[in-house]
Inverse folding.
């Protein structure tokens, strides 16, 4: 692919072929390193019935929470969803199917998908509903559980039990990087790297948004975190809010409601 074919003028153009029912890998941890511009364009696309793979679901009015508000997400595959009231409400009233995955397993399932590994064994989750099945995934409108997780294959290695976990891939991977070049080579900044590099490898079509788009050859090859071979489309974003998901200051013991003396 010619480098010029990878660069799109806007997030909307990069997502012009989005379809209903697509599976989307969305980078970020909390609100750190999320593809803000691509999420906004996905809302505008109106695509419905989406399966979204992301560490969490943003907050009510930002990040992936915007897609929950418009009811474009049918299923979430996530690890932590505790900061989104809309997510909770939709899950408990049957509007949203949820597959909860231990965070390390989640990361490895995506990495395996990008590496072409169909499944792998891990000790995480053995002896729990993760392995045994029965974890609630879908409710009806009255809050009754109507779908639960299936049991997974287990096996002993050297006397230790392991659980077989399937890889995760997606139709699209939406990732956010600090800097990228016109070939699609990406550099992430500090904790905003999080799940973005592994998701970039696991999407059939990977779309990267970057804060700074530079000519090919401008990035030191030793500084590249994700090679452009994994990136099919790239845009230069703007207007980032970079919100903090939650900032809580807790008083020290004895400090609340008086001097503590």
């Amino acid at each position: 692919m010619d480098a010029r074919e990878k660069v799109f003028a806007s997030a909307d153009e990069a997502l012009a072929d989005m379809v209903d029912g697509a599976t989307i890998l969305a980078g970020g941890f909390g609100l750190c390193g999320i593809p803000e511009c691509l999420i906004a364009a996905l809302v505008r696309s109106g695509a419905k019935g989406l399966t979204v793979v992301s560490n969490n679901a943003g907050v009510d009015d930002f990040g992936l929470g915007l897609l929950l508000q418009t009811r474009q997400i049918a299923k979430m595959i996530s690890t932590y969803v505790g900061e989104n009231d809309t997510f909770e409400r939709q899950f408990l009233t049957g509007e949203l199917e949820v597959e909860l995955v231990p965070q390390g397993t989640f990361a490895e399932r995506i990495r395996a998908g990008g590496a072409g590994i169909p499944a792998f064994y891990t000790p995480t989750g053995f002896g729990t509903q993760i392995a045994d099945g029965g974890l609630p995934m879908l409710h009806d409108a009255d809050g009754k559980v109507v779908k639960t997780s299936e049991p997974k294959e287990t096996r002993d290695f050297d006397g230790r039990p392991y659980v077989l976990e399937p890889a995760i891939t997606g139709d699209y991977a939406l990732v956010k990087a600090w800097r990228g070049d016109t070939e699609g080579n990406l550099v992430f900044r500090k904790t905003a790297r999080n799940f973005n590099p592994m998701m970039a490898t696991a999407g059939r079509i990977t779309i990267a948004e970057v804060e700074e788009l530079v000519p090919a050859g401008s990035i030191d090859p030793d500084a590249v975190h994700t090679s452009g071979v994994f990136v099919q489309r790239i845009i230069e974003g703007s207007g980032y809010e970079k919100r903090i998901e939650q900032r809580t200051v807790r008083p020290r013991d004895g400090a609340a409601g008086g001097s503590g003396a």
